[in-house]
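Tutorial, part two.
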Amino acid sequence: MTDGERKLWFLLRRKQLGGFRFRRQAAIGPYIADFFCPKARLIVELDAESGVMESGRDGWRRMAVAWSGSGISMCSNALTKWLT
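Running the prediction step on this input gives:
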């Protein structure tokens, strides 16, 4: 887990974000999402600038369609420097 993921997890865990429960390293079909909120059908992925995310971009899009209604938020670890 990267430093950015640790910071974000600190804010997401224990229903601290609007009472929504997030799971860390959640299996979504054949993929592993950094964070997933089943109730909101929201997938949060950090490290979007890495080569891993670039090569897997089409897979994530297909997964989102398969989960009809799921949203994917991909963001850079650099954004987490503002988190506590």
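Strands lie at 23-28, 31-37, 42-46, 71-75. In part three we will examine how such features are distributed along the chain.
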